[in-house]
């Protein structure tokens, strides 16, 4: 993990401001504390800060091809670099390092812009091709790594991993973008490609920017998109086998590192699943990290401790004070623009703690988006079924009137809290989903905004962001549409932004196995859907486990990392840790018998008290419990909120070997090249 910066003169070949480039690069020292490097050419300057992960000795950047005509500065990881090295070597390319970065320059030589189709990883990079006088910027498919850029009026292009770098230039247009303000107050973050400033843009996920000297500034090009498509019917067992294989391989690729590696463990199903897989792939104990809150009802550390004991991990816990806001001033400097996710505080804390023991950590983020784990998806699909039954001419005024009359009963049992649902039924599908994800309603935003800002908006409404994405989804399925929208808004704009900034502030690399793009593509296609087309939406909604079934342990049915600035309301744990398919009817769910965690233990000694079941017994969905005999409905209400006591999953015992520490990379001095 690193930080990149650059200045490119599109119109000419004059000297770049080296002092500015160095200050921009130095401002990213937290992203790369192990060294700095620069490359200068006529009309071009590239800067890089390195956090050494792979090939500690020879992986410094900028990095070049054989004749020095192609140069790259790179932030992230190419997980499939080893097979790509073999392929490119067979095509005649010569590698000087064993670093994933070098794959990029040779892949560009061989395949040009299409090299992006070959990469499996998280990345944001800038590649300079001296022969073509072309600068190529690219960002990974899901948006794990950031890249900001600005075209200046004098013909220069400035780019960097963080917004703060660009603001060091006095020529950046610092006027606030009124539409970005509207979007922030609606979503709590600023969706790509806007930034808070009119003069700065974010390169959106799965986009590239090809800038040629002497040509006008181009528009970004999309090179990939997630698709939710129907396909051939597949058998349940085939789906199970493929899912576990894909999950194992995704975790395996993200465990390649020459530095200490661990994982976040909250006790929820996503992070627990990642740790389970790591435990089966790693001979020594997995280093796991959790935080504890000193307040009853907020603290989930007991669940994490249970999973740590199950997989014999080297577990670390740090307690933080829930109402501590001492980080707020620092967070403003970390995020550079308005960011309203209160879990930024505990995320920063757990990253800082993990960095004390490891340089790389695997995370369970992304499961809710990939496998439809959010509760709001369920409600959206329910509302869409109602809209399709009740004609809009009748339903909208009827539900609007009922919503206005119905009292707001936040204190009442959930079935009686119908006001929001009635109000959303009175809206269209996009407007209703926008209402469910927005943090500040349209009426309140208009009351907050000044008359001047309202004039500048010229009628613009943040709901247009969702409307534009849903319009490109290519599916009429309501669940597919809102998943698609979240893939392009909430996931990169909130979740992945939070993880990147919080981890990089502590010089920690975080890898997200559940966002492997091949897994995402497969989950969106027929392989992860019900055989019955009529049950397709709910099948995907319930396509994974909601609880971790482990002998003698209690696992929260709803887990989440929440900050002290927001009331901790547990959210459904996502079904991203398991392989299985759920067949469902309108009112009843039948879970596939196999869970997931045992697959991580295939190579470990097994002690069974009952006959062996499938390799994934440790997981089940949120409506049923796998007891090894029959399924028993989960209790609702207070009992469910306290967590489910799960028994009957005879998982293997792990006898961990001694954990041997590994050396942390030594900082490298600054380097500079000139051509």
Topology:
Layout lengths: L1 E8 L8 H9 L9 E6 L2 E7 L12 E2 L5 E9 L2 H10 L9 H12 L9 E9 L4 E6 L8 E4 L4 E5 L2 H4 L11 H10 L13 E2 L4 E6 L8 E2 L13 H18 L7 E4 L4 H13 L5 E7 L7 H10 L3 E7 L7 H8 L8 H12 L4 E3 L4 H4 L4 H15 L2 H14 L13 H7 L3 H9 L4 H7 L2 H7 L5 H9 L6 H11 L1 H15 L4 E3 L5 H7 L12 H6 L5 E2 L4 E3 L27 E2 L4 E2 L28 E2 L3 E2 L6 E2 L4 H5 L1 E3 L24 E4 L1
Parallel strand pairs: 2-26, 13-14, 13-16, 14-15, 16-17
Antiparallel strand pairs: 1-3, 1-9, 2-3, 4-5, 5-6, 6-7, 7-11, 8-9, 8-10, 11-12, 18-22, 19-25, 20-21, 23-24
Q: How would you describe the overall organization of this protein?
A:
The chain is an alpha+beta fold and 675 residues long. The protein folds into three domains: 2-176 and 190-224, 4-Layer Sandwich (Glutamine Phosphoribosylpyrophosphate, subunit 1, domain 1), CATH 3.60.20; 236-372 and 488-646, Rossmann fold (3-Layer(aba) Sandwich), CATH 3.40.50.620; 375-475, no CATH class. It is 33% helix and 17% strand. It is built from 23 helices and 26 strands. Strands 10-8-9-1-3-2-26 form a seven-stranded mixed beta sheet. A six-stranded antiparallel beta sheet has the order 4-5-6-7-11-12, with helices on one face. A hairpin with a 4-residue loop joins strand 20 (583-584) and strand 21 (589-590). Helix 6 (236-253) crosses helix 7 (269-281) and helix 18 crosses helix 19 (478-488). The longest helix has 18 residues, at 236-253. It is globular and about 75 Å long. It starts with a strand and ends with a strand. 49% of the residues are buried. Residues 527-671 have low confidence and may be disordered.
């Amino acid at each position: 993990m690193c930080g990149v910066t650059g200045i490119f003169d599109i119109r000419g070949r004059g000297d770049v401001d080296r002092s500015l480039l160095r200050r921009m690069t130095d401002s990213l020292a937290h992203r790369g504390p192990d060294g700095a490097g620069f490359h200068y050419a006529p009309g071009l300057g590239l800067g890089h800060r390195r956090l050494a992960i792979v090939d500690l000795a020879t992986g410094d950047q900028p990095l070049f091809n054989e004749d020095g005509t192609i140069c790259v500065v790179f932030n992230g990881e190419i997980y499939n670099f080893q097979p790509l090295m073999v392929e490119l070597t067979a095509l005649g390319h010569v590698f000087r390092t064993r670093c994933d970065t070098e794959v990029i320059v040779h892949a560009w030589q061989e395949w040009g812009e299409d090299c992006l189709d070959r990469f499996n990883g998280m990345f944001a990079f800038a590649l300079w091709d001296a022969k073509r006088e072309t600068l190529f910027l690219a960002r990974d498919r899901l948006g794990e790594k950031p890249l900001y850029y600005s075209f200046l009026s004098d013909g220069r292009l400035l780019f960097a991993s963080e917004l703060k770098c660009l603001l060091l230039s006095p020529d950046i247009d610092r006027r606030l973008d009124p539409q970005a303000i509207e979007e922030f107050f609606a979503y709590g973050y600023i969706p790509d490609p806007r930034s808070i400033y009119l003069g700065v843009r974010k390169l959106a996920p799965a986009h590239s920017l090809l800038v040629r000297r002497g040509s006008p500034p181009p528009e970004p090009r999309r090179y990939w998109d997630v698709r939710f498509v129907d396909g051939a019917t597949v058998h349940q067992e085939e789906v199970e086998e493929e899912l576990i294989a894909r999950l194992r391989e995704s975790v395996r690729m993200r465990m390649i590192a020459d530095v200490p590696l661990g994982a976040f463990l909250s006790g929820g199903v996503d992070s627990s699943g990642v740790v389970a897989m790591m435990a089966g792939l790693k001979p020594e104990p997995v280093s796991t990290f959790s935080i504890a809150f000193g307040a009853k009802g907020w603290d989930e550390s007991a669940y994490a401790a249970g999973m740590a004991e199950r997989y014999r991990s080297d577990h670390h816990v740090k307690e933080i004070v829930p109402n501590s806001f001492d980080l707020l001033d620092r967070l403003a400097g970390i995020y550079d623009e308005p960011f309203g996710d209160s879990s930024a505080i505990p995320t920063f804390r757990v990253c800082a703690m993990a960095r004390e023991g490891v340089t790389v950590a695997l995370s369970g983020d992304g499961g809710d988006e990939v496998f439809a784990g959010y509760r709001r998806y369920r409600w959206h699909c329910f509302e869409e079924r109602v809209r399709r039954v009740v004609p809009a001419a009748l339903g909208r005024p009827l539900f609007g009137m009922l919503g206005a009359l119905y009292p707001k009963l936040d204190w009442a049992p959930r079935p009686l809290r119908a006001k929001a649902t009635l109000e959303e039924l009175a809206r269209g599908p996009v407007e209703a989903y926008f209402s469910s994800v927005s943090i500040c309603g349209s009426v309140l935003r208009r009351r907050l905004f000044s008359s001047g800002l309202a004039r500048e908006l010229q009628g613009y409404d943040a709901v247009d962001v969702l409307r534009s994405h849903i319009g490109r989804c290519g599916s009429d399925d309501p669940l597919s549409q809102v998943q698609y929208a979240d893939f392009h808004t909430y996931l990169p704009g909130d979740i992945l932004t939070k993880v990147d900034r919080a981890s990089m502030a502590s010089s920690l690399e975080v890898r997200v196995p559940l966002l492997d793009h091949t897994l995402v593509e497969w989950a969106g296609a027929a392989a992860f859907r019900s055989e019955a087309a009529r049950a397709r939406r709910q099948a995907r909604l319930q396509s994974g486990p909601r609880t971790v079934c482990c002998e003698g342990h209690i696992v929260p049915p709803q887990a989440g990392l929440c900050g002290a600035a927001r009331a901790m309301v547990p959210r459904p744990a996502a079904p991203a840790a398991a392989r299985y398919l759920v067949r469902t009817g309108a009112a009843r769910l039948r879970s596939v018998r196999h869970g997931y965690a045992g697959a991580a233990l295939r190579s470990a000694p097994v002690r069974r008290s009952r006959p062996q079941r499938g390799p994934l017994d440790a997981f089940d969905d949120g409506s049923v419990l796998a007891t090894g005999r029959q399924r028993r409905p989960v209790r609702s209400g207070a009992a469910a909120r306290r967590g489910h006591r799960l028994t009957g999953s005879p998982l293997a015992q792990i006898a961990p070997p001694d954990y041997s520490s590994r050396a942390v990379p030594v900082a490298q001095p600054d380097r500079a090249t000139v051509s």
